[in-house]
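Response to reviewer comment R2.3. The reviewers asked that we include at least one raw input/output pair. We reproduce the pair for NAD kinase here without editing.
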Amino acid sequence: MKIAIFAREVREIWAERFISILNELKARGADIVYHKPFHLRFCRQNKTTLPEGSFFSNHIDLPEETDIFLCFGGDGTFLESLTLVREKKIPVGGINFGRLGFLTSAGTPGGDEWIARIFEGNFNIEKRSVLAVNSDIFPKGFCKYALNEVSFQRQDPFMLSVHVKINGMSLPPYWSDGLVLSSPTGSTAYSLSVGGPIAIPGVKALILAPIAPHNLNVRPLVVPDDAVIEIYVESRLKEAIISLDNRSISIPEKELVTITKAGFELHYLSFSMDGFIGALKEKLMWGEDKRNY
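Raw output as returned:
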């Protein structure tokens, strides 16, 4: 079994456990492929070596025959995994070395029994929608996909006027601090924080949720996931910020951005028996009420 290993960093408190996991994978016969920039950084910072393996540096040289892509960290690390896996249909499993770990569900208090489950095939694969973003502003090499959301935000004290078309039909402008366009996976992230609804992954919908709208009658809007959504912003200082998950760049006003559902899905490796509902209860304390006990 070929297993890719990726992390942005592994803090010192996790280093020993991380090496132990890698040794266990090798003992079970795994062919490990390391993200080379992380491998070099980890070995240098910890003055150590890691079990033998090969390397990849980006989405181009990530081997197509990789069976599982493991990312170690928090949800931000998981989101960055999309930039490496993209359309390759490699199942992505998140090992929680971070804090909340909504997407990185393995390795929490239950321990590392997930290792055996990988080799037994005892896991589920959930197909998660991905957003494709098209605009002339993106620099060469910028990954134009997002798993959670695409957001438009002010970068100065003045509100934005956000203009949206859905399949060619114009919505009233959003006078606000910005706008979040979320996938069902992202409905528990930024969209949730600005009042958007929770959508179970697999729902064929996208969520438009304004950020701090200066209007009492503006509400989040749910649209079909096959819609073509066009967005541009107007700003007093002629500029705003566009973010694809945790990657951001400046965008000039009136620069048109077109967002659609990507032609591929991310294959999310889940070890939870309770799935998405279980994650809501465990991570976000959904329904927490002393009357339930």
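Residues 141 and 280 are 35 Å apart (CA to CA). The helical segments are 12-27, 36-46, 75-85, 114-120, 190-193, 275-283. Further pairs are available on request from the corresponding author.
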